[in-house]
Amino acid sequence: MDTFLNIVSGLRWQDYLDIVFNSYVLFRLYVLFRGTNVIRVLLVICLLWVIQKISLGMGLIITSWAMQGIITVAGLVIIIVFRNEISGVLQTKNLKSFLWGIPRYQLQTPVSIIVESAYDLTRKKLGALIVLPMKQNLRSSVQGGVAWQGKLSREMLVSIFWHDNPVHDGAAIIQGNRITKVSAILPLSKRQDLPSYFGTRHRAAMGLVEQTDALVLVVSEETGRISLFMENRVYDINDSHVLTKLLDDHLSEEATRTGLRHETVELAAAAMISLFSVTGLWLSFSSGVETLATREVPIEFMNLKQKMEIIGSSSNSVKLVISGAKPLIQAIGQDQVKVKLDISKAVTGANAMGIQRENILLPPGIQLKQIEPSEVEVTVDETVQKQLMVQPTWTGRLKQGLIIVSAKAIPETVVVRGGSMGLKDRTTLFTEPIRLDKITQSGRISTGFALGKSNLQLQDHNKNNVTIYYEIKQRSTPEKTSEG
After folding, report:
1. 6 with 331: CB under 8 angstroms?
2. Is residue 417 part of a domain?
3. Burial annotation 396-408 (CB, 10 A radius, 16+ → b, else e)
4. Are residue 377 and residue 387 in the same domain, yes or no?
């Protein structure tokens, strides 16, 4: 998740445009070819591509190689085997359909035409099998058939089931106000409790309603009887008004709105899948392009022993050369690359510390190429306490004729804490400078200690001032003598 967020935060506006544009192109291809065999093969190819990437990530070399070969062959199969279907789709679409048009749900089925056609078929002793799909898709249940896409009319429906028509011996599928397929093969029911007078058309109708929510209208060629199959039930129709009511109840405007909702959900899902697929493909390509970058990173010294302190280092930062996908490199924040050096084994004095790969923390997907310097010298000292004499620091000159007779510091000594090497030969702690040109008589003055930038600290932080008592006298002059 962190890797994904890092990539997203590092994308340029050109990257977003690239992903959105290609996602829209993929979505338009789905809209144009949905419902055809081409889209099914494309979905299978996408699935194989995902398997190939997973296999490559798991190190399954043969599986990855086989999937890659199958995908290449499948691409050729689409062009060769389905060239007529592709050509048919492309030739029947205008510019609007290519760029932004989306076919909407079919219009409400004209029930009156279906009822009139059924009774006309009865009078002519023509058998018929008419399928009216509802919410569920029939692709997995209906086999074969001839794409028709003709506008529904009584004359058209009767002519389809005319004895001399080559496509009369199958089912006609009606969606909205169009006949989408004829001569379709329906699954036969295996139920043993069906009436004995049921022929092949009746068993095919029952077989379809057992698997889907479609309505199937059957006109018997032998008896001329009309039967309506729906929801695993059979309705023997003796009146056109009854048939009209049954069809109206199930093919109402509400059913049309339901179909619209389902279609909207389908298109929204297709748009999201297109976006995710193109994003994954873009990340796959971008991750294959290695980008080098240099980062100056401060060193974090860790696990220093108690009563030890660092008094110096040959370098406080290192230069790292890193590589990775460009979006990942661009998304790296200052706090995402760290150099942590363990100095728990350091001893008093200078210590040479090597900087290895395990000392460096990098975001996922980033590789380390070079470390400079690869070694630093860290000087460590032990913290000790020592009592030092307080010595006032005089600056400037007294006025002419004055002299300091005595000076005493209160407190005379202080306890300081610092490195053992720095305190080893030290016996005095000086005060901050005291200007002599401001002093004209004996007295006292408060001042601080001259700790400066040293690592020394007063043991008692509340006593950080010292009082200097001093005595000033006139300088004595030699007496003059005269010769007698």
Report:
1. yes
2. yes
3. eebeeebeeeeee
4. no
